Amino acid sequence: MRSSRIRAVDHIVREAAIGLAEALRWFYVEVAGLEEIDLDAVSEAESNGGPSVLRFRTNQQEVKIRLVANPVVESSGFPIVIAVPSLKEAADFLEERSVAFETLSGTSWPDRRLATNDPAGNRVELKREWPYDPL
Fold it and tell me: Hey, which of 10, 22, 55, 130 would disulfide with 110, CB 3.0 to 4.6 Å?
């Protein structure tokens, strides 16, 4: 699952309930193939009573997950879209780990995506970019 990329105009910020940090780390690092950054900042914020923010990146883009008591979850609307090298590998990986997903098709043959939710319920789509393997 390496070589994943986020395509966004700016960094992406979502919210999740306090207590989901480990599940979110597993999802964004193992499933989506992103790198976690600033682990010390999360620990420092927690020890100082401030809000914790998990940060994941690939290339120059970041996904930030704020851990809050009453999160606003993006379960529909604007998903986090992460480009992966192979939808087949991503689908196999999700199936092996019993992560529910659906396959979406766009208006053209190469526009295929796998849609799922992160452990907090935020919508995430894994997108294949041409000329990667078809699903």
Answer: 130
